[in-house]
Amino acid sequence: TTMLEKGNISIHTENIFPIIKKWLYSDHEIFLRELISNAVDAISKLNMVSRSSDFTGEVGEPEITIAIDKDAKTISISDNGIGMTADEVKKYINQVAFSSAEEFVTKYKDNADQNIIGHFGLGFYSSFMVSDRVDIDTLSYQDGATAIHWTCDGTTSFEISDSERTEQGTTITLHLMEEEAEYLETSRIQQLIKTYCDFMPVPIKLDGEVANKQNAPWKQSPSGLSDDEYLELYRYLYPFQEEPLLWVHLNTDYPFVVNGILYFPKLRPDVDVTKGQIKLFCNQVFVSDNCEEIIPQFLLPLRGVVDSTDIPLNVSRSFLQNDRTVRRIADYIAKKVGDRLKELYRSDKTKYIECWQDLGTFVKFGSLNNDKFKQQIADFVIFRTTAELASDQPKVEVQSGEDDAWQSADGENAAAVDAKGNAYTTLKEYLERNQDKHENRVFYATDEVSQATYIDLHKRQGLEVLYLDSFIDTHFVPFLEQEYSDVKFSRVDSDLDDTLIDESAGGDIVDPTTNKTKGERVKELFEQSLNKPKVTIRTDALKSDDAQGAPPAIVLL
Ligand code: ADP
Ligand code: MG
């Protein structure tokens, strides 16, 4: 084939512009987030520039001001940042999808300890979602720069003229459309600042008052944060909720940037664990509330903040699920959560056990859902047991409430016994402890109350029973059976015949009329007893030594 022509695709701005305005963002309200982000960037840039040797200008206290003029139907966003020269306005504003961020960061990389939020060069145009007209008044920090006025009515033509502005920085003024009058309400703007800009590092003034919190603890180093500071953030993000059990501080720069703090809440029935409650940020700018695509499903009950510049934001959610970086971030988060549990198990077993009621559900769900997590956590899955485990240390006395119980510091060898005297064990410990009595055999109960008689029967036989009685255990037992394929798992109310009785007289037929073995008879009687609450069964005679050879002394009382 012969090449006939080679060329560049061109775009008709008149046609593409309405599409950008209308479809780029789903929510009109994010215009404020975008303009404030630009203002923060402008301030960060000035800061970086000011540290280069040839800088002769001035840097004031960083500040962003939002002013509403109800009569003129305008809202304006002002910053005292870097400003723009006429050339910069032409370059970065007049060209859609052209950002100065990369250029800037490359030029000032030696001073680049601050992050630039901008990236795509589209944010500014979100202002046309709510405005008939947008004005820019700006004065660059550069020597001899003159103030510039830019105006555009949402078509593809603009005007540039001189501006009366005298202070360095930029003011963006939006002439709001009739139907966007809600943004003339101070309370609405306040709410938007709280939602999107609360943790941005520059004070944002509205009506003379600072409307944002600024400090983003997750960006700090974990060693610099006290427990109180972690708890304070939790209470701030999730007011009127119970205190979290523990937290994990995410902090990595390589191979992707992720900062964040994840909290394990107490799982109360009113907590909807299917709806993600983790807040996703990008450079301290709030992005969204449910980040199911980034957080592995089993970690959705967690709360807190994930802040990453490496999560592509302006793309569809289904794309996110298939994005490699996003998947690696998800793995990273799961691993950090596993590490935290491991560390707690080793350093403070008492607290681990106290939290197990809630943690266990995460851990089991995670083991079922995520292979890597399963392997990582396998040795730290514990079960309440009927065994009376000796405690290496005096038992913790708890006067009131459970909360203080785990405050007492215990070491690695702390007893696996909680404040109520319940003992806990890992499966490995169970198997080791019982290998002489019943090798590769686990007895478990799924309901402490309705299976009480069976549990008791096992205990009297000197057999240790594990409780697998949380709602997730219905799925977890088959999982264990698969994982430990050489171990037999016997529920206390089944398999009675060959477990309890075998060693003594299990196989013998004890009832010539029905041809039933002793084991079958015991089982039958227990089953009958379950339907008659008043009936109890004396099983003392079943103990292997006196049951030897003798007929079963089971008495219905
Ligand atoms: P991005 O922020 O992704 O770069 P925007 O469309 O939001 O894209 O902004 C385009 C460019 O306009 C920015 O890169 C910056 O150079 C310039 N700009 C926008 N707002 C300001 C401002 N308040 N002060 C200085 N420059 C600004
Ligand atoms: Mg921007």
Q: Could you characterize the architecture of this molecule?
A:
With 557 residues, the protein is an alpha+beta fold. Helix 12 (452-460) links the parallel strand 16 and strand 17. The chain contains 16 helices and 22 strands. The N and C termini lie far apart (98 Å). It is 32% helix and 18% strand. The model is unreliable at 393-414, 497-507 and 531-557 (pLDDT under 50). The longest helix has 24 residues, at 324-347. The radius of gyration is 33 Å and the shape is elongated. The chain binds adenosine-5'-diphosphate and magnesium ion.
The biggest beta sheet, please? 8 strands, mixed
* Quaternary class: single chain
Number of helices: 16
- Please give the alpha-carbon distance between the first and last residues: 98 Å
Q: How much strand?
A: 15-25%
Which molecules are bound besides the chains? Answer: adenosine-5'-diphosphate, magnesium ion
Please count the beta strands (DSSP E, at least 2 residues each).
Answer: 22
Rg, rounded, reads 33 Å
What would the average pLDDT be, to the nearest integer? 83
**What is the helical fraction, as a range of percent?**
25-40%
Estimate the global geometry from the Cα principal axes.
elongated
**What ranges have pLDDT less than 50 throughout 5 or more consecutive residues?**
393-414, 497-507, 531-557
Sheet with most strands: strand arrangement: 5-4-3-6-2-1-7-8
Class by helix and strand content? alpha+beta
For this entry, give a set of tags.
single chain, 557 residues, eight-stranded mixed sheet, five-stranded mixed sheet, 22 strands, disordered C terminus, binds adenosine-5'-diphosphate, binds magnesium ion, nucleotide-binding, ATP hydrolysis activity, unfolded protein binding, ATP-dependent protein folding chaperone, chaperone
